[in-house]
Amino acid sequence: MTSRPVSTRFRPGPGWWVPVLLCGFAALLLNWSGTQAMDNKLLDIQFWLAREYSPQTVEHEPVIVGINEAFLDEVDEPLVLNHVYLAEFLKTMNLAGARAVGMDVSLPEKRYDTLASTRKTDADFHKALLSGILETIQGTPVVAAKVWDMQRRHFINIQVDYAAVLGMQNARFQPLASAEFCRDSDQRIRRFPGKHCQPDGGASGLATEVAAAAGVRQDWSGLINYRLGPRFDYIPLQDVLQLSDKGNIGELKRRFEGRVVLLGATMEATDLVDLPVPLASWLPDGVPNPGVLAHAQLLRSIMNQRMLKPASNEVLFTLCCVFVLFWFGRSVRWKVALFVLAVTSLLAASTVAMQYDVWLPPTAILLTGLLALGSSSAYQGWRHFIDKQRLSKAFSGRVSPAVMDEIVAGREHNYTHSRRLPVCVLFSDIRGFTTLCEHAQAEEVVSLLNRYFAVMSKAVHEHGGTIDKFIGDGMMAFFGAPNALPSPEQSAFDAARDMLYALADLNTELQQEGKPPLAIGIGLHSGDAVIGQVGSAERHEYTAIGDTVNTAARIEGLCKDVGYPVVCSDTVADKLLDLVTFVSLGEKQLKGRSAMAVFGWQLPQETTTNLLKKQANP
């Protein structure tokens, strides 16, 4: 006898394609603008938390010299004619030994050499600035900002003499650099202003070229690290010029020697930008900050070699696919707990990674995991619903609806565990059924019983009863379990009454078919009974056991002798006397127990007459 080889070929289970689809969806999430917008919000929160609770000190701090409202109030000329003051500032920086100077101000487009000052008649605006630049670049590199003209779609060209003198500097940096920023969809400045951000596609940004002028050159990319350094303060331009006028070289060197200096507007209504965190120490939170601070924070990141590097798409995609594993597993409760733990771990990992200047954007990963968990739960819910429907369909004919509801709802303890409950038990059988069987074929008898039990079962179920069993032509049912009823006796009596009405309709059909009518007897008794599952593991049934059940069966046996289709015990009648008219039948001896008072009931006479007429004239 040969054995068949066992196949080890992988056979994916149902729904195997869903994780593959989720990984593909994760790839789309990584490039979706909505994901990036949510990541930006989370990044801002992490920046704020880091600055509040874990401030990062740095070695190389840029110095900001600010042009504020007080300076404009002190000088006679408008800002566009501040050539003399700019020249004095540049020469002062050279004298103070600044490492490099960045000017976040636009140099003039024209010479203005035909203008003269009323207070300084010998002042030549053009020559003063030109000589100031020329003298400064001998010892201190200077980088000036280029401003983009939105209407003309090009950078504004500064006066050719200034550009020529600035161009005489060392070739390691560009003396004219773009002051444009990289703005995200919410207009905040977070990213390094590389080629993709510059309107002309150039790579020379102001902070990059200032750093290069200071001797720090690299192909920069990534995010501006807003975790670094405290809030910025600035030195007013007029204070610098006063120190220069007083010849206080020592103080100037203390403030500027060996440091990168940025000159820019610090006014509350000029050149303002939206930043992830507030950087101006002199402004309240929640307001735009001067643009020179964005250049200064970028310089911090560059000069200290601390640009924030986003994790690669390969790493993010791998983590997304790891979170796709939440599709697997059956226990939703455990998966939710693990998901919360995984989310907490991911956010913690993102925070720790930022300590090493790496940004781990979590949104795409979290959305992928959430989608995997949600789709898995929905799939399991759908399968559970289908299983319930299949289970209900398979067992609906084998157990009563009340028991079926408990099984489908997962409340097995309500019918598997035995309990003593107050119930009302109903027994019924067909009168003269043995004689009927002797004169009919077995198939006809079974067909008749099926029709009979169909209408009887419906009457029982409509009043919340549980059919225990069918015994030949007899039926046992009880009311009050597994679902409690306000009055088991009332429900049992209502079911018995409707059984008689249903029997009358069935007899009408039988008479039309030329078959003899049926007569039944119904016995009712209430009391405590043990309700639960009885049998073996292989075969069991939900049933009622106890003296209440036996007594109900004995009472049903009286129906033929007393001439009433419904006979009940005094325990049932006592609870229904206000609603039902019973006929006292006195005490009757019951087999196996003492005598008991019983009561009879039948359909009202007018109802019986109407039913007979209906049968006679169908």
TrEMBL record:
Gene3D superfamilies: Nucleotide cyclase. Residues 424-556 form the Guanylate cyclase domain. The chain crosses the membrane at residues 311-329, 336-356, 362-382. The keyword Transferase does not apply. PROSITE patterns: GUANYLATE_CYCLASE_2. Keywords: Membrane, Transmembrane, Transmembrane helix. PANTHER family: ADENYLATE CYCLASE, TERMINAL-DIFFERENTIATION SPECIFIC (PTHR43081:SF1), ADENYLATE CYCLASE, TERMINAL-DIFFERENTIATION SPECIFIC-RELATED (PTHR43081). This is Adenylate/guanylate cyclase domain-containing protein. The lineage of its organism: Bacteria, Pseudomonadati, Pseudomonadota, Betaproteobacteria, Burkholderiales.
